[in-house]
Amino acid sequence: MLSYKNLLKTLLVAGFAFSLSACDDGGAENAGEKIDEAVNEAGNAVEDTCEDVKEGMKAEDKDC
Question: How many helices (H) and strands (E) does the chain have?
Fold first, then answer.
């Protein structure tokens, strides 16, 4: 399950990068920052979901 989420994040980031590659006025630096933000947001969402699931299952260890 975790590998599926990593694949999904990778595809999301790749699609985002390709969509920004045609933009000249934003520059590579802005594109890189937006990609970093997207990856961080996706990672945080996955971790939050994992913690919610563990909390719902009343697991002792709620860290993901």
Answer: 2, 0
